[in-house]
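User: Can you predict the 3D structure of cyclic pyranopterin monophosphate synthase? Sequence below.
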Amino acid sequence: MQAQRLMFLRRFATLKPFPRPRFFSSHDIANTIAELNQEMEFVFGAPPPSSLAGSSDSPTPDQEPHLVTNGVNPERAPPSGLTHVDGKGEARMVDISSKEITKRVALASCKVVLGQKVFDLVSANQMEKGDVLGVAKIAGVCAAKQTSNLIPLCHNINLSHVYVDLALNPRDFSIEVRGEAASTGRTGVEMEALSAVTVAGLTVYDMCKAASKDIVITDVRLEQKSGGKSGDWSR
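Assistant: Sure. Here are the predicted structure tokens for cyclic pyranopterin monophosphate synthase:
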């Protein structure tokens, strides 16, 4: 077997370069490849890799894999209801220019569970940073107006009204946060209401974290909305 391999290598070592370009027909190339394949199989005892078997094994255009972007076939339509996803599975901002202008209102809520120690301090307005409820209320209003800067695909909405309210609940030593946003336009204000209560809750945590790290912000949710194509909705 060693002698056969040496003979195969010597054959290629004695090949001389062509003095000038030489053109081969497809028939000559196919015959040459076939002869080399037979010699390689004879010398090494195994057929050559399929990639050397010739151009006949190359995939046809119909067999070539389709491009997939982010796991989604570009030709596939977006799932029903996911308006922020296009046909290629990529994020997009929805075009609302054709939507009807209507009055839109949304109400959201969340709860901040303080624990008895922090609850008593907030109730007595004795937190070191100051008025927890007052600062959180203003933070919620500001957040509603900055929603499109916080959430990339939200539209910049001209809000006509934002209201945030925080109420102490002694039953579970929590603060119940409610936020309302309103506008007259082509898209809803649910995200504005949700942003308001979320940032208000975060502000409560910031104002109180020196007294306790065990504060929990929970139950952030939309309570109801009105206006727009989908009409009224209530939890």
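The longest strand covers residues 102-113. The chain has a mean pLDDT of 80.
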